[in-house]
Design goal:
Helix content of chain A is 30%, strand content 30%. Chain A is of the alpha+beta class. Chain B has a nine-stranded mixed beta sheet with strand order 2-1-3-4-11-10-9-6-7, with helices on both faces. In chain B, strands 5-8 form a two-stranded antiparallel ribbon. Chain B is globular and about 40 Å long. Classes of the chains: A alpha+beta, B alpha/beta.
Chain lengths: 84, 227
């Protein structure tokens, strides 16, 4: 069994209205050192060991459904998990 | 003309059904997300609403249903496919139209009338409007902020695929885009809700001509060849 963590954010070239609102508020609180806030989502799931390469499965699941490649980027972490 | 109004869990199908049958006076049937055929229908409508609770992304989960395979087939056959609101979001997620929507710039759900300009009246959906005509249509969405890359925008412009734009861009869409059509001209997606502007009693009738244009097109082309 593998545990998979997927991080999804809007692409760098896409303005993130959510991130901009949070950043504006932080500026108002004088956190001037904070910049480029991107609000994204975190998705986790398990993948059973099978004949297929786990990375191939994860990529496929992300590109097919979890991520919209028109506006979103993603990265993932895969770790072996003993107990489910 | 017989329309299929596709129903996902969370769709606003009843308003659309009512507009097509009672106001327009055409035939319509509500078709469930697990339907495996759309044969016998002359036009397909993906209504607004919140299919699958907008989970993951608006319109995303609706793409993975049996009926969407049939909608894709119908689009390939050249049948008219109209997606409004959430229906537009589904067409984008399914890749039947280019681009994507983000949350509105204001991050708010906006529900009000907007002035919408008819940029292209040479489509089967808009022939009864004047080019450049300003019409009033209600919008009701939280994610209608249309986005596409520069290359896609260029292509949309070159092929006259931008059909509707907002006068006062309420949601932050690229170039104020409110509705686009595919290159072939048979798949239209738009955030404004024409079915909510089909009777004076509900605030206006500017949406009615969209449906009438479709029926006219069907009577003049498809129905003639079949007769």
């Amino acid at each position: 069994m593998y545990k998979v963590k997927v991080y999804v954010t809007l692409k760098k070239s896409v303005i993130d209205p959510h991130g901009s609102a949070v950043e504006k508020k932080l500026r108002e609180l004088d956190y001037n050192e904070v910049s480029n806030i991107r609000v994204g989502k975190y998705i986790e799931f398990f993948v059973k060991k099978s004949d297929r390469d786990v990375e191939e499965v994860v990529k496929e699941v992300c590109e097919k459904m979890l991520v919209n490649p028109v506006i979103e980027d993603f990265r993932y972490e895969i770790e072996e998990s003993v107990n489910q | 003309m017989k329309f299929a109004v596709i129903v996902f869990p969370g769709s606003d199908d009843v308003e659309m059904y009512r507009a097509v049958t009672e106001v327009l006076g055409e035939e319509a049937e509500l078709v469930g997300h697990d339907a495996d055929s759309l044969e016998g229908f002359d036009g397909i409508i993906l209504p607004g609403g919140f299919s699958y609770g907008d989970y993951l992304r608006p319109g995303a989960l609706a793409c993975f249903t049996k009926v969407m395979d049939e909608v894709k087939k119908a689009a390939e056959e050249g049948k008219p496919v109209l997606g409004v609101g959430n229906g537009f979001q589904i067409l984008l997620e399914a890749g039947l139209l280019p681009g994507a929507v983000k949350k509105n710039k204001s991050l708010r759900f906006i529900c009000r009338n907007e002035t919408v300009k008819v940029e292209n009246n040479e489509t089967m959906f808009t022939s009864l409007y004047e080019k450049g005509e300003a019409i009033t249509l209600p919008i009701a969405h939280e994610s209608g902020n249309y986005h596409c890359d520069d290359e896609t925008l260029q292509r949309l412009k070159e092929n006259n695929q931008i059909v509707f734009t907002y006068e006062n861009n309420p949601n932050g869409s690229v170039e104020g885009i409110a509705g686009i059509i595919n290159e072939r001209g048979n798949v239209l997606g738009m955030m404004p809700r024409p079915e909510r502007a089909t009777e004076e009693i509900i605030g206006g009738t500017d949406g009615l001509r969209l449906f009438q244009s479709l029926v006219k097109h069907w009577r003049e082309t498809v129905n003639v060849t079949n007769a």
